[in-house]
Amino acid sequence: MSDTPAEPAEGPDFDEMTRDIAEVPAVEVIVTVAVNLMSAAAVKLGLTEEGEKHKDLDEARKLVHALAGLLDASTTEISSFHAAPLRDGLKSLQLAFREASIVPDEPGQGPGEKYTGPVYG
User: Fold this and answer.
1) Fewer beta carbons within 10 Å, N or C terminal of the chain?
2) Mean pLDDT, 10 residues at a time, the chain of 121 residues
C-alpha cells in the first residue's frame, strides 16, 4: 500500500458543459424539460410496462401540474409545431390521472387544470 494520498477523481468539466448548453436554443431546452416531465408523470401514473410498481398519484399530480405551468408560461415562446403535441400529451396525462384516481377531482380542480381549464374525456 502506498503512503501517498490518492489523486481526487476529476470532476465534471463545467466550462465544457456551459459551452454545450450555450449552443442549445431555448425552445429545445423547454421542449426537452416538458418531455422529461411527461415521461416522469407517465411513470408515476403507472402507464409503463411495470405499471403499479412505480405508481404514485401524489407525485404524478405534481409533475402534471408543473408540466401544465411550463406549457402555459411558454405558450408565446414556442411554436405551435412544438406546443400542439405537448398540449395533447398533457391532456392525455390529465385524463389518465382522473381515471386512475379513486376519488376524481372536480372538473377544473385536477392537476394542471388551473392552467388548462377543465379537461374532459
Assistant:
1) N
2) 57 78 91 97 95 94 98 93 95 96 92 95 76
Distance CA 30, CA 105 (A): 28
Q: Which three cell numbers stand for residue 87?
A: 398540449
Nearest to 66 by CA among 92, 38, 106, 43: 38
Distances (CA, A) of 53 to 48, 58, 62, 82, 115: 9, 15, 18, 31, 30
Q: What is the distance between the alpha carbons of residues 116 and 108, in angstroms, rounded to a whole number?
A: 8
Instruction: Say how far apart CA 25 and CA 13 lie, in whole Å.
Output: 21
pTM, rounded to two decimals:
0.83
Residue type (1 letter), 102: I
